[in-house]
Inverse folding.
């Protein structure tokens, strides 16, 4: 069918143009000028914040990948192959062991020591303690600095005290309170990806992709395994191309990883005093600001509701998985009429009418999200909502979904060491993501079971 | 009332909008994209009269028109760095304004139309066949009586010179919907226009 030919009624048009249109109120332009100045100020602040986050994220990515490699190595190694000792675990057994460990843990705590020698920023060292719980609550405290982050899962509030290391003309400490957080990516959630969600996801990704070489060694006088794991290098900021990992044999806990690039030292990470299922004081997850600190508060716009209330808020029935991996349960339902743009550098259209369903199993989590595809003022041009950019260019696997509401649609599936395992697709109306601590088969299974919910 | 030659109409639209439909130079646009407020003010000056026309006819109230345009300009300023030029700048701005007007309408206040006393005694550029002031009042009333979707489409196509595809882009509807809404809107408005049509001998 061809588009109808444009026909105009010139007489009517002339009469319509002749209708009077009032001038603006006297203060209109001054008000617009003020609003634009505010917008510009906010934009600059956001750019500075993103620069800060980007720098930290790149640094943390190195640490994250290192930590993930440690855990992956521990899982892969399992039990040693010796003449008289037990036989090595198979990949399936290792996966089962890792899944069982993470999915059954109620709490985890310990200490991370990190040092690096970066050609750009020079030598650096940090020490952190961490506490996390299956509810999603966590606390990260820097032992040798002023950084402290706490997420109160019960109230959906994250508080942090930070040192402004990258902004010299600002106060040395600033306090931030963020509420209205989403359960997690691709929407703005708590900053716990280092320890909890992404760690488990990266473990699975590495287990699926790597076959590391294992050697016997000792570490601080104790029997240990040493594993070399090659990793892809960041295209923008060459960070590391290999991790040398040491795992304590008695506990199976990874205790050290050294990251190298072209054989040269880049960073070292140690995990100490790791404790599983210790009773943690709820007060551990509460950060109280000093009275003399200005607090920057923000509301990310997500509200927790019951599942049967979702359609009343967003105007469409949520897509709910009819089948989920054993042990998972629906933990959070969050909605936002409007949220931040997703994808690489926030390049997607703004998120409207977002639904985020979070499922938890021990320390594992996966999230199903939907948002409107067509947004006024934005082209229908979507890229991976969980795309990270930052120099990591990963080619997704194209799959055709064969069941449920998404049947017949092509989805992009991505399982790589440095991102959450996830898939995403577009329906006529929605952008759909499934992401988190799931294997490839589980991701597909969940996606193919999505049905319009209550 | 005769169908018009599209090219002639386009020329007349360009001439009519002396500020130019897309007369914002690329240098100014680039500056505005980078957050230069003065450059953005130039963009606003070029389009403000036309956007006021759409907003006022949709909202029927000067304060609401200003509220919607204020919001539209902030949205445009915010989104301009991502404006890729796939659409004409004018089409893009009209779309943002139309959406801001819809949001304003959705806030629940009753839709009004231009008070007649605002029209009384005002000068007109229109040739005056007979009682033009009275006709304009009737036309304004007839326009205000239309559904906002129909009002928007007749303003965009007949008053602003958009073609159906551009109007569809502004309104976020298929081209066929533009044509059908336009048909309904014109039928209603032509009744109010009859004195002008008859006086002009069309």
């Amino acid at each position: 069918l061809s588009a109808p030919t444009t026909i105009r009624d010139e007489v009517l048009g002339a009469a319509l143009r002749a209708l009077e249109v009032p001038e603006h109120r006297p203060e209109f332009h001054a008000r617009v000028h003020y609003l634009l100045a505010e917008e510009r100020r906010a934009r600059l602040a956001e750019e500075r914040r993103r620069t800060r986050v980007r720098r930290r994220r790149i640094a943390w990515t190195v640490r994250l990948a290192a930590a993930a490699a440690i855990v992956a190595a521990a899982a892969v190694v399992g039990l040693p192959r010796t003449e008289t000792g037990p036989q090595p675990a198979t990949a399936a057994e290792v996966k089962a062991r890792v899944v069982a460990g993470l999915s059954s843990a109620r709490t985890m705590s310990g200490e991370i020591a990190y040092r690096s020698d970066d050609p750009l920023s020079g030598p650096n060292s940090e020490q952190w303690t961490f506490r996390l719980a299956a509810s999603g609550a966590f606390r990260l405290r820097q032992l040798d600095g002023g950084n402290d982050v706490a997420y109160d899962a019960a109230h959906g509030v994250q508080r942090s005290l930070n040192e402004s290391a990258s902004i010299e003309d600002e106060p040395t400490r600033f306090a931030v309170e963020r509420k209205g957080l989403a359960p997690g990516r691709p929407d703005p959630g708590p900053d716990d990806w280092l320890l909890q969600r992404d760690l488990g996801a990266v473990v699975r990704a590495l287990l699926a992709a790597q076959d590391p070489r294992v050697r016997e060694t000792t570490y601080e006088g104790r029997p240990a395994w040493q594993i070399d794991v090659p990793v892809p290098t960041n295209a923008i900021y060459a960070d590391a191309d290999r991790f040398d990992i040491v795992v304590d044999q008695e506990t199976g806990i990874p205790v050290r990883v050294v990251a190298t690039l072209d054989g040269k030292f880049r960073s070292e990470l140690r995990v100490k005093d790791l404790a599983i299922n210790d009773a943690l004081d709820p007060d551990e997850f509460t950060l109280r600001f000093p009275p003399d600190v200005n607090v920057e508060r923000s509301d990310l716009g997500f509200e927790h509701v019951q599942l049967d209330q979702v359609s009343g808020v967003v105007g469409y029935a949520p897509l709910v998985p009819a089948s989920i991996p054993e042990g998972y349960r629906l933990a959070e339902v969050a909605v936002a009429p409007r949220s931040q743009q997703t994808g690489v550098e926030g390049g997607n259209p703004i998120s409207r009418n977002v639904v985020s369903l979070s499922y938890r199993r021990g320390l594992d989590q996966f999230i199903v999200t939907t948002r409107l595809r067509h947004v006024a003022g934005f082209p229908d041009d979507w890229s991976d909502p969980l795309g990270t950019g930052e120099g990591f260019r990963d080619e997704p696997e194209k799959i055709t979904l064969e069941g449920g509401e998404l049947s017949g649609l092509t989805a992009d599936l991505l399982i790589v060491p440095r991102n959450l395992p996830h898939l995403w697709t577009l329906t006529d109306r929605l952008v759909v993501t499934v992401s988190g601590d799931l294997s490839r088969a589980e991701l597909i299974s969940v996606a193919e079971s999505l049905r319009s919910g209550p | 009332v005769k169908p018009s030659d599209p090219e002639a109409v386009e020329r007349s639209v360009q001439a009519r909008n002396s500020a130019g439909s897309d007369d914002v130079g690329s240098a100014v646009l680039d500056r505005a994209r980078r957050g230069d407020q003065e450059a953005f003010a130039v963009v606003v000056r070029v389009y403000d009269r036309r956007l006021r026309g759409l907003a006022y006819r949709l909202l029927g109230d000067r304060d609401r028109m200003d509220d919607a345009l204020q919001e539209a300009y902030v949205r445009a300023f915010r989104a301009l760095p991502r404006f890729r030029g796939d659409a004409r700048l004018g089409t893009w701005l009209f779309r943002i304004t139309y959406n801001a007007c819809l949001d304003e309408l959705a806030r629940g206040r009753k839709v009004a139309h231009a008070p007649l006393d605002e029209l009384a005694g005002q000068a007109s550029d229109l040739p005056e066949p007979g009682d033009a002031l009275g006709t304009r009042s009737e036309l304004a009333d007839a326009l205000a009586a239309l559904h906002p979707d129909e009002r928007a489409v007749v303003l965009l196509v007949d008053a602003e010179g958009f073609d159906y595809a551009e109007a569809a882009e502004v309104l976020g509807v298929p081209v066929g919907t533009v044509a059908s809404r336009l048909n309904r809107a014109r039928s209603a408005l032509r009744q109010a226009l009859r004195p002008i049509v008859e006086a002009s001998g069309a």
Residues 69-97, 165-171, 196-206 of chain A have pLDDT under 50 and may be disordered. Chain A is about 20% helix and 35% strand. The first strand of chain A starts at residue 107 and ends at 118.
